[in-house]
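Why does this matter for the project? Reviewers at the last site visit asked to see concrete outputs rather than summary tables. In response, this paragraph embeds two records directly. Each consists of the residue sequence and, immediately after it, the corresponding structure tokens. Nothing has been edited or filtered.
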Amino acid sequence: MQKKSKRQSGNTNLASEFYVASQLFRLGYEVTITLGHTKEIDLIVINPTNGKTITIDVKGLKNKSNWPLTPQLKRKDHFYVLVNYCNKFNDLDLNPIYLKANNVGQLDKIETSNNTANTVLINGGKITTAATWKNMGIPYEIKEVVYFQAAVEVEEGTTILMQPSEKLIINGSGSLKLKGTANANITIKSSKPSPASGDWKEIDIYASSNNDNVWSYVNIMHGGSGSYGQVWVEKGASLTLNNCKFSEGRNCDLYVENGGNIVNNGSTYTICPQ
């Protein structure tokens, strides 16, 4: 039998840690992932109701095998969670992954089927570490406002679903590169099964971003519920649009303040009046 590499084992355990953390987070607990910095402890879990803290050591299996479990830390407030998902998330009643925005860059591709809500659910927050959002094969779904305060790239073919009244904010030296291609566009649209114009707010680009915002082959639709179109560009901010298409916004697409900079290469959109 072929021996599993350390990298394969590490990826399986990390995926299992994120899965357990997402389930606990969904139940209302505060969860910190140690990312291997604390021996024998993968998750630190706080009950916000009573302030009690427990620790968890997660053991994950990709294939059928024996559990890699040799308990070293024995305490009443320390638990072991065993996960065997065979690299698949199937037949779940909820989203297969639920996490904060700053952790999305840690994800690897997964296999999913027959899940009631088949998206990676992002519960908002600030992104402070440079990351790549991989094309997971299922959409990302924005549940709360996401602040891009570091350089983020999104892979070709990715779909981002926006829940009602939500927005994306690019500021604090952050940037957002949407790297679609002619054969694999990136799509940002409403999360509703029957979408309509103005379902979500907009993408805000502030002058405090690093102005490396380049979007290629992106379809943006159903936004503009506020007064700033589907994308708002502050004075001093910059956005490059390469073969992007805006559609089904409430009133208009781009609200560009005087002094804001748009570089357009083959994109279609309407400008909002000021």
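We now turn to the second protein, recorded in exactly the same manner.
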Amino acid sequence: MFDALQRIIFCITDKCDLRCKYCLNEKSNRTISFNSAKQMIDVLMKSKKRIVEVNFSGGEPLMGHRIIKKIIEYANREAFKKKKIIKYLIISNGTILNEEIISMIKKNNIDFIISVDGSKESHDKNRIFRNGRGSYDLIKKNIEKMQDKGIKASISFVFNYNNDITRDLDALLTLRPKNAYINLEIHSKHDSCEKKAYGRSKRDDISRKIARWYVNFFEKNQELPPIPVLNHKWLKAQYDYEKYGISTKKKFVYPAQEDLFAWMRSHEFIPALCTRPEMNY
């Protein structure tokens, strides 16, 4: 039954220290139990895949960093027995970082994605603490701390259509990310009509600006920026990238999760299981 299973996605906790204005996730104190996580790792070990993946998200997963460490230690022991390789990923808001977390990331070669919404001005409009204070300065400080320790994080960027996309892309590059992923679909629990208001014409206008920015960067630097947008379904029609010497053969875009049990990557469905704190096994 689990022969083709490739990835486990742990929603470690519903806790979060931020109150992002567009976040739809319910906040609670629920955190996954180690016994539940252990059972899911046991399931993953039944896969016939030699290389498997374990992802940690939330809420803010690093509010449960001690249980993450415990899960990884158990997974590593089981993988050694089964002669498997595990690739780890943490998706975080970047506000929580200490020496214990840094050591865990380095020791286990964990890929790390931090949510940063462009410039400080754009980011602090939405990604705020409970008291309304913006989170950009703390996240920037933590990214720099990670880089000083030899850890290069990637960035997940949710674009707000009211902001300046060129300014936000330029600002992202100043953080020197390993990679950056753009989400043009902003969601807001405060405005159910928001997505409808940003229709195709607005979306295409933003896509053209991103495409032009991408080409300008390439012409100036003769290299690609670390932002995988070439195969974005809205961008492909905007420019003939081959004309600029930019190859579009490589798959740059990983579409969003389709549902809890299958992750689509490069147009390929990868069997995956997603666990949440309230699930019982």
